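hey m, so remember when u said the tokens were messed up on ur end? i reran from scratch. heres the input so u can diff it against urs
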Amino acid sequence: MGITRKSNPFDINGKRFDKRSEVETVKDLIRDLSTQTNISEDIIQELPIMEMIGVLSQREASYIILHYLHKQSIVDVSREMGVNPGYVEHILARGKNRLGEYLIKQRKENK
């Protein structure tokens, strides 16, 4: 009879997901977008967040809303959506890239 090893529910595909360190806020999103686009956080904060989210696909918008607005961890979002946490990270990154492109386009149009 061998030793049965319990798997850690937060250790998925060799990557540890810590609930406490994975929760982000809208402020984190704004900071990330500011870094990505070189647009000041003050300018980004003036934009209506739901208007910005409107440029995303339904999936990207759902994941961004759950993670940043509802402050759910990557693990919690993955459980709610029934997907792997790595997939949640992928969709969040894709959504942030699309938001960054939108912000740069808006900035160019308003100059």
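this time it looks ok to me. The CA atoms of residues 34 and 40 lie 6 Å apart. if urs says something different then somethings off w ur setup not the seq
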